[in-house]
From TrEMBL:
Transmembrane segments: none annotated. InterPro entries: Acyl_CoA_acyltransferase (IPR016181), GNAT_dom (IPR000182), MSMEG_0567/sll0787_C (IPR023911), MSMEG_0567_GNAT (IPR024035), PurM-like_C_dom (IPR010918), PurM-like_C_sf (IPR036676), PurM-like_N (IPR016188), PurM-like_N_sf (IPR036921). GO terms for biological process: thiamine biosynthetic process. NCBIfam families: MSMEG_0567_Cter (TIGR04050), MSMEG_0567_GNAT (TIGR04045). GO terms for molecular function: acyltransferase activity, transferring groups other than amino-acyl groups; thiamine-phosphate kinase activity. Pfam families: Acetyltransf_1 (PF00583), AIRS (PF00586), AIRS_C (PF02769). Residues 34-181 form the N-acetyltransferase domain. Keywords: Transferase. This is Putative N-acetyltransferase, MSMEG_0567 N-terminal domain family.
Amino acid sequence: MIAYEELLAPVTGQVPDVLSLLGDRASLARRPAFRIEPADAPALRAYRRLRHEVFVREQGLFAGTDRDDRDDDPRTVVLVARSADGAVLGGVRLGPATDGPDIGWWQGGRLAVGRAARGTGGVGPALVRAACAHAENAGVLRFEATVQPRNEPLFAHLGWHRVREVRTAGVPHALMRWPVNRVQDLVQATKTALGPLLTTGLPGDLGGAGFVGDDGAPVPGSDLVAACDAIVPSMVERDPDWAGWCSVLVNVNDLAAMGAEPVGLLDAIGARSSSHATRVLAGLRRAAQAYGGIPLLGGHTQLDVPAALSVTALGRTSRPIPGGGGRPGHDVRLTADLGGGWRPNYPGHQWDSTSHRRTPELRAMIGSAASARPAAAKDVSMAGIAGTLGMLAEASGCGALLDVADVPRPAEANAGDWLTCFPGFAMLTADEPGRTPPPAGPATSAVCGELVPGTGVGLRWPDGDITDAVTTTVTGLGNA
């Protein structure tokens, strides 16, 4: 038996190989020949020497040096492949493609592998895959590389798409793009099943003509609008007070998108215990009070059952704003509260912009659509900003372009997270160009796109390129 002390690092500071100490030959035989990791200072120096050897001396692509301003950008990331003994076998760099704020457009480049590591070892492909994974994890929505013609088949095999021919250092290269499907994947997970599941063909269903699939449903023969939302059970279980707050937040946002004034709430709660239900109700009541004292009219509560929460809200307006009133040529505007921060335990998924706001601020934001009376409005839902824009466009019978650089966004949120998260208060509207911003209290409002003929949502970048965010309709519910 090996004593615990024998596994500790000796006084020399050399960390022992535990697998070797244990004699685990099978695991040692399966251990990868190299690992990929962010470069530390020594590895960065080794990578730059390797780059010089490959691009300057071996290929003659650059004269004197292959260094450029991207090497001096503190946002640039270098990943290296290291052998078991720590030697740098190859590396790649990646980082924002533009100066100024990071808008989610990155470029990879300077992929270099030492002579001894080329061939069947798989170092180059592994570095490319690692770069793609790192970029997507950093919230990148457009990731490209300029590739020498001889390496184009490798990138195509790994799933990259050729965009066009470009020239680097005066030599023809292929601009290739990695498909980032983050928005499309979210849409498919949250909304795509709704059309086939919910469509009945009966008149008046799903909101009635002009409001099919809308944030709320006008109640026939009245000036009431009804909205209903359920909270994910796991959230009710692990964060009951926040779940209660959000059950009011999402319903009030739905009514706000319709231009309706909230007049009452009904809740249905399932909880494992009375104390758990008390915490849910505390968050619900706190939110109802914060939004101006919305009456809690009643509901249903059941104990000793799995956690569940659903809230119905009633609002009043004589002129509901449709989610499908947009037309090609209309400006797309996002009005969002950029204050607050990521909710603890939900980084990158839930932005809490509301729980710290005072009642007048909250009231100003939820009254903004009713004041502006746009042609179409939708509050940002589980499908995120880009997916919700797809829902507005689908209901309007058209497609949409979103200008990524113009989207109001908190400095603490990267582009990918912000376009796919639940952002607290955020409202998408469509209207004729030239309309003034709505009065929305502390929220930020900006035109950041347009409705266009077709379907889906494209992301438009500062260089004029358009990448796919949503390639089809979102819900399948069709034109409202």
